[in-house]
Amino acid sequence: xxxxxxxxxxxxxxxxxxxxxxxxxxxxxxxxxxxxxxxxxxxxxxxxxxxxxxxxxxxxxxxxxxxxxxxxxxxxxxxxxxxxxxxxxxxxxxxxxxxxxxxxxxxxxxxxxxxxxxxxxxxxxxxxxxxxxxxxxxxxxxxxxxxxxxxxxxxxxxxxxxxxxxxxxxxxxxxxxxxxxxxxxxxxxxxxxxxxxxxxxxxxxxxxxxxxxxxxxxxxxxxxxxxxxxxxxxxxxxxxxxxxxxxxxxxxxxxxxxxxxxxxxxxxxxxxxxxxxxxxxxxxxxxxxxxxxxxxxxxxxxxxxxxxxxxxxxxxxxxxxxxxxxxxxxxxxxxxxxxxxxxxxxxxxxxxxxxxxxxxxxxxxxxxxxxxxxxxxxxxxxxxxxxxxxxxxxxxxxxxxxxxxxxxxxxxxxxxxxxxxxxxxxxxxxxxxxxxxxxxxxxxxxxxxxxxxxxxxxxxxxxxxxxxxxxxxxxxxxxxxxxxxxxxxxxxxxxxxxxxxxxxxxxxxxxxxxxxxxxxxxxxxxxxxxxxxxxxxxxxxx
Length: 542
Fold this sequence. Notes:
Oligomer: single chain
Low-confidence stretches: 19-24, 202-211, 535-542
Radius of gyration: 48 Å
Number of helices: 20
Strand order of the largest sheet: 12-13-15-16-17-18-19-20
Number of strands: 21
Helix content: 40-55%
CATH superfamily of the largest domain: EAL domain
Largest sheet: 8 strands, mixed, barrel
CATH class of the largest domain: Alpha Beta
């Protein structure tokens, strides 16, 4: 029996030693994890600490009044802790997890507390048990990381360029404010989307030499690329002109994603286009001045035929500029610039002089003058001087004036027309039928001819509306004892139809294209076919 007692004592001692060892290991584990366990007794409002935190000596010991622990918290955390206890006491909640900050003599700590309510059979709160872990280092590291991110955000949000970054899967992880503004997205909306899909999908993006998107190449192969001219896709589906650089994001472990830095190029392109136009304008001004000084302006001619006889009775003179290499520049290229920069007056006077010379050799010619020359009170004096010097008949010059030129300065245009008429020259209203005031000018100006606008001639064979306009103009002209000219006759059917509708004269590519002076070869066969056809009464419709 004595032996049994000895064995039993040894067994109890062993069990007690094992329990103590287990408790020691548990304490060590708590210390390593910086973990404390405790219980708050609702009846006494005392906190029993089972395992103290080494870093929080002020919170060590077996028991503490609850208020003493609460007083060590920050003001905001104290309010939260009391609210949690009230809600547990009322049964609104059974568990809580919060991170509290404590101001202790040893410094400031951040403790993460997990707690659970213990109740009796009736649901009355008996106590709250929990654990508290020291997460100060983790909290400070997180705050440092957040601070770094906030600093990075502050830097990148101050950029004028857009910035987008992606992870190793090509998914967006960050966009700065400039990118948000240019693309029309809030950052949180696009995080997690494909970066390539966000910027390029459906936009016809520029591809590199291998036919691959530069962004995909950077993501897949780690290639750095700069694209000078491309388009991204805005949220509303509209294209955004950009220049961008795409580069891989590198870490110690290798390529983890890529970054795209981009800038909108719409304004830059517009500025470059303006500069290019300015350069082109300056070059054209120089070419115009050189053309005048080197006598490289030329007059081409296009015949105007009489429809009843097929005879070439007049020629319209059309201005051209011949380059030193022999290339021909059309008037719509250089005349607007010449007028804008005050060079057109000299050109017009050259045209008048040359027209008088041609009229002495080939009869009636039509010529066009700019609006600024019509407004110039001395231009008629120049016309009179050229007529005298060349010996040309004044009646052989037909000046074509558009309604636009008349509207610019109606008084000057009327004075110009009156002096031309007194001089013996003729006047044609060009592009007749397109404006609102043409009929008024028939009463106010000494007009001799109406040129029916090409808009009503080119589709005459297929448009009843155009035929009605031509019939009306012909009838109006005959009422005022005027002649009509159809310009833009480009096929045999149109030529036959304008004659049938009572038009007096015609010109156009079907008869002859503009050509250098005295080298015209009108299509005699086409004219003969028209003049051989019987003519209907003027102004009738088919």
